[in-house]
Structure formats: C-alpha cells, structure tokens
Amino acid sequence: MNSRLVRKVYIYFVIIITLALVTVGVTGYWRSSNELENQYEGLLTQIVDNVLHETDLFLKSYERATLSILISPVVKEALDLPYHATSGFYSSEIAMKGVFQPVLINNPEISMTYIVGYNGFQATDFNAHIVPFNYKGFDEYVEQMKDDDTINGKLTIKDSGFLDGHLTLIRKLADRTSSTLFKGIMGFELKIGELNTLWKGIKLGNSGYFFIVNDRGKILYHPDSNRIGKQLDGMHFNTVEAKTDQVFELPGEPGRVFFSRKSDYSGWTLVASMSISEQRQPISDLRQTILIVGIITLFLATFLAYRFGQSIVRPVRLLENGMRQTAKGLWTRVPLTGSLDEMDQLIISYNTMVSRLEELVERVYETELRNQDNMMKRQQAEFQSLQLQINPHFLYNTLEIIICYAVIQKSSEIKDIVRSLSYMLRYSIRTDLEEITVANELKHILYFMSIMKYRNQREFEIDVRISTDYLLDSMVRLTLQPLVENVFKHAFPYGIEDKHTIIIDAWKNDRDFYVIVQDNGCGIEAESLLQLNTRLLNSRQEKLVDTQPISEGSIGLLNVHNRIQMVFGQQYGLSVQSEQGSGTKVTIHMPTSSAKKVIAV
After folding, report:
1. How far does the chain reach from its first CA to its final CA, in angstroms?
2. 172/155 Cα distance (integer angstroms)
3. Which of 224, 278, 276 is nearest to 254 (CA)?
4. Could you tell me the pLDDT band of residue 518, with boundaries at 50, 70 and 90?
5. One Pfam family from the UniProt entry (predicted)?
C-alpha cells in the first residue's frame, strides 16, 4: 500500500511538472520566436528607412548649394543676354567662375558644375582637372537634359552622370517672372563614391547586406563592386517592385529574406537582405536553452517530488503502524516527525484520539464492572425478596385472624390498623413491577395515613393537588410514602398542629415529569441542606441502598434517590429546597412516557 502511494504521489508530481514545463516551454518558445521574427522584420524595416532617410538628406543638402547660384545676379544677367552675344558670353563665363568656386570649395565631392542657357550661353567649372574632357559629348548630354520633360524647376537626380562614377544633380532655371518659362539648366556632377561611403557604414549582421537599384533596375550600389552598374535580373526586379514594403524571398536566393522600400525623393529602391539561418539563430539558441533548462528542471523537480512524496508517506507509514498496534489492543502513540506541519498536527490528533479511546475503554470497562456488581446486588435483593415470600400466606392469614377478632370484639380501630398494615405489606413486597402508577402510590399513602391517624391520635389530611390527567403516569414504587413519613418525623418534630400542611403536586413537559412533596414545617439548616444536596449530587459514587439513613426508623432520601436513578438513569432523582422556619420542598424528577421509550431504546 505504501509503495503504491509513493508511486502515485511521484507519478502525479512528475505529470504535473512535465505538463507545466512543456506548456511554459512551448508557449514561451512560440511567443519568443514570433517576437524575434517580428523584431527582425522591424529591424530590416528600420534599417531600410534609416538608409533611405540618410540618403535623401544627403542628396537634399545640395539643393542649398544650387540656391546660392540661382540667386546670383551674374546668372540672371547671363541668361538674359541676347541669343549668341559672343562678347557678353565671354565676360559672363568669366564672372560665373567666381560664382561656382565657393560651391566647389565647400563641396569637394562635386567634380563639375555647369550652367547652359537656351540663349547659347555656357559656363563650366571643375574641382579637379579632368583629362580628357569630351566637349562634344557634354554638349550632346546637355541637349538630352534640355529635352527631358522629367526635369523641372526642382532638383532632379540622374544616376547616369556625364562623368563615369558620378551622379547628375540637375534642375531647369526659370524666369523670375514665370515659373514655367525656362531659360536654361544647371547641373552638378557628384561623385557616387560619397554615397558608397555612407552606405558601407550600414551593417545587417554577419551575412546581411543591401543594394540600391533605380527605377530601370540598374544597380547603383552593391557590396559586391563587380555588380555596381549592372542590370538586376528581370524576374528579381519585378519581384522587388511588386513586394515593396514587404518581406519576401527571391528566386535563386535560398535561405535569405529580402525587404524593399522605394524613396519618394530619389526614386531609388533599397533592398535589404538577411540570412534566414542567422535570423533564426537566436530562436535556435532559445530552443536549445529551453530544452536544457527544461531537462535540468525536470530532473531537479523529479528529485524534489520524490523527497516531498517521502515526507508525506513517512508520517503515513508511522500512522499506519500505530493503527495496526492499536487494532491489536496496544494503545500506541506515534512519535512526531519534528517538521511542525500538517502531518505533525495529524499525528497529534491521532495520539489525542488514542488517549481518549484508551480512557473511554477503561471507563467502559469500569462501568461494566459496576454494572456486574449492581446486577449481583440486585439479584441478592431479589433473593432476599423471594425469601420474604417463603410463607407470605401465613402472615396474611394471621392478620386476617386479628381482623376477625377485632370485629368480634367490636374494635374498628384495630381492624383499620391491621387492614392498612396488610395492604402496605402486600404493596411493599411485590416484585413484579419496578414502576407503578401515581394512583397506586397515592393509595399507598392513604393506608399509611390511616395508620398515622391512630398513631398521632388526630386526623390529618394531605393536600393532594395532582391533576387527574397524571394519575395513570408511571413512577417508581415506594417513593412518595417515604417522603411523607420523613415529613412527620423531621418537619413536625414537636407534634402536629392545625397550621401544618403537606402538599403533593405534579406537572410535566415534553420530556420530564415532576412530583413534589412540600411542607410548612421547621425546615433544614443551611449546612445540613448543603450536605444533603451534595450527597444527592454525588450519589453515583454512593451505594445503591444507603446503609446510613437520614434518621433512625425512616427510609432515607438517598434510598429513594438511588432507586429512581437505577430505573431511569443518573440524570433523574431527588432535589431538596428548604429554608429554616419556612418548610421544605422535595422534588421527584422522572421522565415522561415518551422520554422513557427513548431511554429504553
């Protein structure tokens, strides 16, 4: 049984711990992996946004450089010159050098700046000497820019500059009176290497990278310098254009994810890429960590569960052994475990129960011994009663002869005395009934008073106030007559006077039946009354028949009290109330007929 209990406790704990670990581990891993994936997607988005923002800021900064040229009066005068005014063009070109120089000095990444008017004016300046310079090709390039409708009064970025490795920043110059009437164009040739320096500072992990393509699929920047300037594969370019602002995969690029976003300012598309294995490496580490920690925790929790199970089963085994010994009749106390927990409280309760059971068994044993002693005494009393009946007819016949002689001698007093005595003797020695009716007890008192009339030489009537409803109720035989006799003996010690009364009354409730015998005699002294009530209260330690009556020649109150308790139980009997000089009231407490049935059961 103990081993089964240990196994059950151990198995239940292991199941609970395993379920908790699996639930927490799986839920934690699932949520953590989702969070990490979302963080990587957010990281890609943030990096792309930052690169685009920095690139746009870098390119927008050159709008300020163009403003310093646009507001120059020299530029206005040059563009307002007559068509092919040679002398004016020459002087204006010389003056334009002074306008270009501050811009070139402050922006060394600009290799070339130029203004070309629709009136034939043309001025150029360089940050470094460019050899050889193809003027014819430059003129053709400028003519293309003039005819390009996408170029307007705002700064426009052309990724295919006139000079190799350069971007063209170009804008058309409008008349001051009309923003749609253009008089020429102004452009910068910007080294693309400056942007490459900016882009190279962006890191996407160990294997991540990004590249930039224009709206035609030309690669403007790539970590692999061999791919710069080349065209992106058509399928890849279509995917990049279609999946803008999304995480996607490219055909032919297994194990990598991409994210693209297009700049509204430059029109370029920036594509960032990361390795899926690198992206999921923290998730793999997390999974491995959860497994290792879960296994270690499971072993530790299993060990603790075993120890906990043992801490529960060990006291149970002690209790089981103690119960086995108690079942054999050996009242065994279980030692405490010393943990001062609920198990120790249980052991304390068990030891208390064993102690009380031991006391109860001893009490029952003593009660059984007393019952056997009482039974023996009762048998002796019955034997003595039987002895009194050895020849009762002889006594009764003798009394009848006395009555006959009293009739012959015409002595009614002797006849009444003997007849009353005969009835009282017959009533006293009857053994067929333990309980008698109230009417029979009152009849017995009637014969007793008949004798007392001749003894006291005067009539005395007892005031019987018992309702006729109670006359057939049961009570113990020979209880009223001893109490009435006790009144004559002790309440009226100096003789009966006219003022003396004896009252017999009765009442009852659902469970209890009370009969009182009350007199207005001399009463009982307080000390004697206390001793009497103490003896009545402690009567269960007294003998069933009091061998020391209260007064010589009378049956003692304890005799009546003990006989009532023998029939109905220890909670019933006599109680005495008295006040010296005012009389005494003795109350007989007995159960009702319905309560007697409950007692019998």
Report:
1. 41
2. 8
3. 276
4. very high
5. His_kinase
User: Residue 218 gets which letter from DSSP?
Assistant: B
Q: Helices in 328-437 by DSSP H: which ranges?
A: 342-388, 392-408, 412-428
Question: Residue 560, Cα to own-chain centre: how many angstroms?
Answer: 64
Report whether pLDDT(2) > 70: no
540 has pLDDT over 80: no
**pTM of the prediction?**
0.44
Contact 589, 572 (CB under 8 A): yes
Contact 87, 61 (CB under 8 A): no
Q: Is 379 exposed, middle or buried (0-12, 13-18, 19+ CB in 10 A)?
A: exposed
Q: Is the pLDDT of residue 550 over 50?
A: no
Give bridge partners of residue 363 from the DSSP assignment: none
Of 589, 412, 390, nearest in space to 506 by CA: 589
For residue 132, say if its preceding peptide bond is cis, omega within 30 degrees of 0: yes
pLDDT above 90 covers what percent of the chain?
10
Residue 564 · residue 572 · CB < 8 Å: yes
Lateral strand order in the sheet of 269-275: 219-221, 209-213, 269-275, 256-262, 247-248
The residues facing 171 across adjacent strands are: 186
pLDDT of 389 strictly over 70: no
Instruction: Give the β-pairing of 209-213 and 502-508.
Output: unpaired
Q: Determine the length of the chain.
A: 601
Q: How many angstroms separate the CA atoms of 33 and 392, rounded?
A: 113
Residue with tokens 């003396």: 500
Enumerate residues 6+ apart whose C-beta is below 8 A from 79.
Answer: 115, 117, 118, 119, 121, 173, 183, 184
- CB neighbour class for 98 (10 Å; exposed up to 12, middle 13-18, buried from 19): exposed
User: Buried b vs exposed e over 299-318: b needs ≥16 C-beta within 10 Å?
Assistant: eebeeebeeebeeebebeeb
Task: Give the count of beta carbons closer than 10 Å to the beta carbon of residue 62.
Answer: 19
Q: Hey, what are 308's tokens?
A: 């906990």
Extract the tokens encoding 93.
């070109």
How far from the centroid of its chain's Cα atoms is residue 559's Cα? 65
Angle among Cα 112, 113, 116 to the nearest 5 degrees reads 130
Query: What is the sign of the dihedral through the CA atoms of 491, 585, 502 and 569?
Result: negative
Q: What is the DSSP letter of 601?
A: -
What is the band of 546 on the pLDDT scale with cuts at 50, 70, 90? very low
Average the pLDDT over each of 118-127, 151-160, 239-248, 317-326 and give the range with the smallest value: 317-326
Task: Check pLDDT > 90 for residue 501.
Answer: yes
**What phi, psi does 232 have (nearest 5°)?**
-75, 145
3-state secondary structure 449-472: HHHHHHHHCCCCCCEECCCHHHCC
